[in-house]
Amino acid sequence: xxxxxxxxxxxxxxxxxxxxxxxxxxxxxxxxxxxxxxxxxxxxxxxxxxxxxxxxxxxxxxxxxxxxxxxxxxxxxxxxxxxxxxxxxxxxxxxxxxxxxxxxxxxxxxxxxxxxxxxxxxxxxxxxxxxxxxxxxxxxxxxxxxxxxxxxxxxxxxxxxxxxxxxxxxxxxxxxxxxxxxxxxxxxxxxxxxxxxxxxxxxxxxxxxxxxxxxxxxxxxxxxxxxxxxxxxxxxxxxxxxxxxxxxxxxxxxxxxxxxxxxxxxxxxxxxxxxxxxxxxxxxxxxxxxxxx
Length: 293
Ligand code: SF4
Hints:
9-stranded mixed beta sheet; alpha/beta; 3-stranded mixed beta sheet
């Protein structure tokens, strides 16, 4: 990306406590995210970093003490990438995520990684050194054109392929269907495609707030005008019936496939067998409202 502004940033701590429900700790080797998803909730980070550039067009590459002692984090859950993707294309050059993994490799920490990339394949052998790793790929469409209009990450096919490879290597994998765009995200089809290669399917609805609410509604008005009444009902008038219906349909769908479907499970356990557990996190925003990331 020609317009990308890259800065180096020295930080005292790369690992911080979080009150996100998914982990005890969070680490973000970058500030900013060049995947530039139009619906990114993390874009509020701009406010805390004095960046004036649009989200996706700046990247602070973080450096920390290479000798930092992380032993005190043994036994904790660490979420990599709560406000950036740890496997951005720029990670190929800067290797900050890899540097952190190398520093952590002898510490019995529970790694939780969320990405929209397949660059994580580069670190497959390194990740095998950790005894407890869970990796989630965000996938919210099977339509390449829609994906390209929403984010600058790798194609959905490449994300599925990476998930399959990690699954076959024995890692715990998650297909994170998020955010679900009403009547656009093909939820059932994604589940069918992912079910043989993941332990969990997380389902999260599209939340619209802040700067991006108008942007997404304008996008829908322009590209899917027939869906505008539905989007207005949900996002202007607060009508939740679409999500209630979808919840019901997905429960039925899960039943038809013999899959277990649960609501808001905070610490899902991996069960024996290969069928994924479906977890509905609709209305997640109420849980995340005061979260420190
Ligand atoms: S990958 Fe995640 S952090 Fe990055 S822009 Fe997209 S939603 Fe935001």
